[in-house]
């Protein structure tokens, strides 16, 4: 015998039940916040509650286990809002972004990754973002990886600030907040940041196209150049000495080297997020 067809009321009852369960789970998740605060205060941890290494791992796991009708973009953005708001409730912070990389794109990055509860403040350029975070190192600054102007030299001179993450945590075709962005923050708690990729600033002498190619041959990446300075992304497994030796063979030298932060290895999936 055929089952009688479900009515719209039946389906809405199901949706109401699931919504109530999800809400109850969110309330239960929220009840952990006081314990998180207590544990973090009771250990060596202090300052910002942002733990980018943990978040990169969580976002990868979320996207890996996702299945079903709901687009990946939706699931990722829901969890970004949950996690960022939990960070905010533990210790309030603001996010600063630069309009110079495209105000709308930067705002999208901020809202997608940090939601609407965390205040977003727009500045003219990367230098102004760094100045704002220097004033309150519990805040986070967003700077496009491709931003020009040599902003990273400011971090080389200020050891209290560093790059602590790179967004998006999981890259994919058509990501709704795709603008590659560094997150700048105050000195992170021990173990809070990933160091799969370390960022090196150096003055250079004898730099040439051959030096640029050599950086790639060694397995690193020149992210930017400004006057005689260079910003290089160096995977953890590549020793600085190897880079220096390779560059010496191309006639270039690194001087006044400074590490300005690190982030998790870039991770891509080829699934489009909207389907
Ligand atoms: O795991 C932590 O340290 C938390 O504070 C929890 C949590 C989360 O909501 O899952 C929030 C902030 C951190 O950046 C990472 C994760």
UniProtKB/TrEMBL annotation:
Q: Name one GO biological process term.
A: chorismate metabolic process
The GO terms this record gives for MF are:
chorismate mutase activity
Q: What is the enzyme's class at the highest EC level?
A: isomerase
Q: Where is the Chorismate mutase domain?
A: 2-94
Look up the EC number in the record and give it.
5.4.99.5
Cited InterPro entries: Chorismate_II_sf (IPR036263), CM_dom_sf (IPR036979), CM_II_prokaryot (IPR002701)
Name of this protein: chorismate mutase
Per the UniProt record, the lineage of the source organism begins with: Bacteria, Pseudomonadati, Pseudomonadota, Alphaproteobacteria, Rhodobacterales
